[in-house]
Amino acid sequence: MIEQHKPILETSMIIKDHIKVLERKNNQGREDYIKRLYTYFKRHTAYTDLIHIVLGLGIGFIIAGGVFYKWGIVFLLIGISGHVYAFFKRK
């Protein structure tokens, strides 16, 4: 009975190996992304503080709701775009 299932077991082992390789590649991409952001933010602390204060205000305005909801969206967009800028900025 084990002989009948041998091709299936071999195939499943190959699939598991491919999944491990893909997971390693995905984790490496995330680590590079985070390292790149941390490097920029470490060098530009005032910019880091500003962006995170803006994000905090955006979240606070959204939680407050009502009239402040629109301002919350604006502040969140500014904060997110600040992170995107930091990612693409070269030194």
Brief account:
This protein has 91 residues and is mainly alpha-helical. It has helices at residues 2-43, 45-64, 68-88.
Question: How is this fold's topology laid out?
Answer:
Layout: H1 2-43, H2 45-64, H3 68-88
Folded structure, characterized:
With 91 residues, the chain is mostly helical. It has three helices and no strands. The protein has one domain. Helix 2 (45-64) runs antiparallel to helix 3 (68-88). The mean pLDDT is 78.
Which percent band covers the strand fraction? under 5%
The radius of gyration computed from the alpha-carbon positions, rounded to a whole number of angstroms, is 23 Å
Query: Helix count, per DSSP?
Result: 3
Shape summary: elongated
For the structure shown, list the relevant keywords.
91 residues; mainly alpha; 0% strand; elongated
